[in-house]
């Protein structure tokens, strides 16, 4: 007969919760990437040349919708998706024209990514965090520039090289090469 969860040691419950969380994140990233593969127009999938060009720079990869999706899935699997989410939020923020929307978006981005209690807190140093906090008091399109540069640099030197060695990227590369070879045979 089952004694119930309350009879288990607390460290077992904590470990089980941690495993469950990691499993949910892994399954979500796999589902997201599979959905992208199925739903995207085949023309938006990278050619083998495009996928190889992603090795040239993080910018080239992020400029391609499929590259961005693959990188995001990879970051999610490494529990660092907040970095690309923050970077994308900043890119969107810079395009905002209305001062009212600028102020509300600035507060939202700050509370979601910069604040020490933020649910998706990004890893930036104290000086950058403090400068950004001051900038948000008088929002301008450039108020997140320093923090965004730090996160971009972190992704570029840390996550991006690992992505290029990852199964996610290698699968995209192999799939695009297979698609290119198939298309040549039928042409």
TrEMBL record:
<keyword id="KW-0539">Nucleus</keyword>
<feature type="domain" description="RGS">
    <location>
        <begin position="57"/>
        <end position="173"/>
    </location>
</feature>
<dbReference type="InterPro" id="IPR024066">
    <property type="entry name" value="RGS_subdom1/3"/>
</dbReference>
<dbReference type="InterPro" id="IPR036305">
    <property type="entry name" value="RGS_sf"/>
</dbReference>
<dbReference type="GO" id="GO:0009968">
    <property type="term" value="P:negative regulation of signal transduction"/>
</dbReference>
<dbReference type="GO" id="GO:0043204">
    <property type="term" value="C:perikaryon"/>
</dbReference>
<dbReference type="InterPro" id="IPR044926">
    <property type="entry name" value="RGS_subdomain_2"/>
</dbReference>
<keyword id="KW-1003">Cell membrane</keyword>
<dbReference type="GO" id="GO:0030425">
    <property type="term" value="C:dendrite"/>
</dbReference>
<dbReference type="Pfam" id="PF00615">
    <property type="entry name" value="RGS"/>
</dbReference>
<dbReference type="InterPro" id="IPR016137">
    <property type="entry name" value="RGS"/>
</dbReference>
<keyword id="KW-0472">Membrane</keyword>
<keyword id="KW-0966">Cell projection</keyword>
<dbReference type="GO" id="GO:0005634">
    <property type="term" value="C:nucleus"/>
</dbReference>
<keyword id="KW-0734">Signal transduction inhibitor</keyword>
<dbReference type="GO" id="GO:0005886">
    <property type="term" value="C:plasma membrane"/>
</dbReference>
<protein>
    <recommendedName>
        <fullName>Regulator of G-protein signaling 8</fullName>
    </recommendedName>
</protein>
